[in-house]
Write a structure and sequence with these properties.
single chain, mainly alpha, 6 helices, globular
Length: about 120
């Protein structure tokens, strides 16, 4: 008989892998919704030992971490850096992909002609 694994168990196992977790968080960040990123980071934290372990590693309380990593959380950069460090990940900045920008072209200014008034 074939055994199955729940989605949550599968994701916890996969998110324990640093490469997969980094890709998962990049995708969440590209969503553009801060709440999506925070919940994704919470799932990564849970895969790395849970909130109690994360609280110990970051020096934050579990309650503060649950609030921070909620869809309405508003963490400080230092808090995010501590969470990333505790999960074995790093925040980085890279250049945005070069996109072809459409330059708005204006019509050339029309030369004004003076009309001589008839005398």
């Amino acid at each position: 008989m074939k055994t199955t694994v729940s989605h949550d168990d599968f994701m916890r196992e996969r998110l324990a892998d640093a490469e997969f977790a980094a890709s998962y968080l990049r995708d969440a960040l590209e969503d553009g919704n801060a709440g999506v990123l925070l919940v994704a980071l919470r799932r990564v934290a849970e895969a790395h030992g849970g909130m109690a372990k994360l609280a110990q590693a970051t020096g934050l309380s579990r309650e503060a971490l649950y609030r921070t990593l909620s869809p309405s959380g508003n963490p400080r950069l230092t808090t995010l850096a501590a969470i990333f460090d505790a999960t074995g990940l790093r925040l980085t900045v890279v250049p945005a992909e070069t996109r072809t920008r459409r330059v708005k072209r204006t019509q050339p200014a029309r030369k004004r002609t003076r009309l001589a008034a008839a005398a």
